[in-house]
């Protein structure tokens, strides 16, 4: 292989799964250096995203994995109204124990941010098995307010301009007049490995339940309610820019003004709208009038209200039973989209044919959440490694011979 041009060798390596690359990186120092380089990591991730080779991670208190090949095989082998996927496995994850359940706070670039009942949050790469435990809020000397908590909402994402991963924690409080309602915001930065508090916001992002923020265009998005006075509320689409750490409202589709979808039978606003990503664009699912049908809107030009386009409407009775709501999980190359129903079911909807089929996952019988991720070499300890590498190079100049065995490539092979 050494006689091949370097660009061809790199192209071959980019086609390999993460498991193979992890084995090959200890073959020799040049390979280890190549696989550890940021350029190779980015190219490998980009290829996985372009090929749409995603895996399903299902959480029902514990974590279960359905890899891309198993899912694809199940989908192509069945064309009936019910598709079964039996190739699912319970997997190990950081701090796994039968005494605590786990929740997924968000996926990004092959990393999953997860939290257990014992309030341990970590950023974890299921493909490489690396993880990083986040400092706890108690270490910040965080002083809780005396107001009553409603719920906590999270968002996890990456901004390529600052090359940093951030976790946003939004805790919503209610209070009687004259104090008013507010949400406290804490932001964790992987680069600095620290939390900080930013400005309180007049939004409640728990409008659609505990759905994590959706990452589009370097910003996290939620359907939220904005308080107008002590009682009045307005439904808005709100974003958090990961780079400058600011909140702002995104112009919504015209259906936000449609009163037929703003109230369900119980007079509640919750779950009538869901935000997602479709074809790389911001997407909103609007459940109209007792969920008799669902409009799917896409913002083709981010930030431009006029670019909202209604792609299609879901009208099937088996999909849109009254007061059963949908959230978008993933799109397939064949034109199907994977949706999760609020009555704990997964279904595949063919956008072109207007037909659907139920996807049943073996062992998954109770309430669950589902996220998708692509295999990647992205390390949750990458920023820490860079700091250690700089310190190591500094010491190397003082005593080159003493530190010759501790070069950066060998450090990564040991992790």
TrEMBL record:
It comes from the Eukaryota. Residues 389-405 have a biased composition (Basic residues). Residues 1-45 form the F-box domain. InterPro entries: F-box-assoc_dom_typ1 (IPR006527), F-box-assoc_interact_dom (IPR017451), F-box-like_dom_sf (IPR036047), F-box_dom (IPR001810), Gal_Oxase/kelch_b-propeller (IPR011043), SCF_F-box_component (IPR050796). Transmembrane segments: none annotated. Pfam families: F-box (PF00646), FBA_1 (PF07734). NCBIfam families: F_box_assoc_1. PANTHER family: BNACNNG10540D PROTEIN, F-BOX PROTEIN CPR30-LIKE. This is F-box domain. It comes from Macleaya cordata (Five-seeded plume-poppy).
């Amino acid at each position: 292989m050494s006689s091949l041009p370097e660009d061809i060798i790199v192209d071959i390596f980019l086609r390999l799964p993460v498991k193979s690359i992890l084995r090959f990186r200890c073959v020799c120092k040049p390979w280890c250096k190549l696989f550890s380089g940021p350029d190779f990591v980015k190219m490998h991730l980009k290829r996985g995203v372009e090929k749409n080779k995603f895996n399903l991670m299902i959480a029902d208190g514990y974590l279960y994995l359905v890899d891309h090949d198993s899912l694809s095989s199940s989908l192509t082998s069945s064309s009936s109204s019910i598709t079964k996927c039996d190739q699912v496995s319970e997997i190990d994850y950081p701090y796994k124990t039968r005494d605590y359940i786990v929740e997924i706070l968000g996926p990004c670039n092959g990393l999953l941010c997860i939290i257990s009942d014992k309030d341990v949050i970590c950023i974890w790469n299921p493909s490489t098995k690396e993880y990083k435990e986040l400092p706890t809020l108690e270490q910040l000397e965080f002083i809780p307010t005396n107001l009553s908590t409603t719920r906590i909402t999270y968002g996890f994402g990456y901004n390529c301009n600052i090359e940093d991963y951030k976790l946003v924690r939004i805790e919503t409080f209610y209070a009687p007049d004259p104090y008013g309602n507010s949400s406290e915001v804490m932001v964790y930065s992987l680069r600095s490995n620290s939390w900080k508090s930013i400005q309180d916001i007049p939004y409640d992002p728990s409008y659609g339940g505990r759905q994590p923020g959706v990452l589009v265009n370097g910003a996290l998005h939620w359907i939220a309610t904005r308080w107008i006075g002590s009682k009045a509320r307005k439904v808005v689409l709100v974003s958090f820019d990961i780079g400058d750490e600011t909140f702002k409202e995104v112009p919504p589709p015209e259906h936000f003004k449609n009163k037929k979808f703003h109230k369900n039978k119980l007079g509640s606003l919750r779950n009538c709208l869901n935000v997602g990503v479709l074809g790389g664009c911001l997407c909103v699912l609007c459940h109209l009038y007792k969920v008799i049908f669902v409009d799917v809107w896409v913002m083709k030009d981010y930030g431009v209200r006029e670019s909202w386009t209604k792609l299609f409407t879901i009208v099937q009775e088996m999909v849109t039973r009254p007061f059963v709501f949908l959230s978008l999980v993933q799109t397939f190359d064949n034109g199907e989209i994977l949706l999760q129903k609020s009555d704990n079911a997964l279904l595949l909807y063919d956008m072109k044919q207007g037909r659907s089929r139920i996807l049943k996952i073996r062992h998954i019988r109770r309430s669950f959440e589902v996220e998708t991720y692509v295999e990647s070499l992205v390390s949750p300890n990458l920023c820490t490694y860079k700091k250690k590498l700089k310190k190591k190079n500094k010491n190397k100049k003082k005593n080159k011979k003493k530190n010759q065995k501790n070069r950066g490539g060998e450090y990564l092979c040991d992790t």
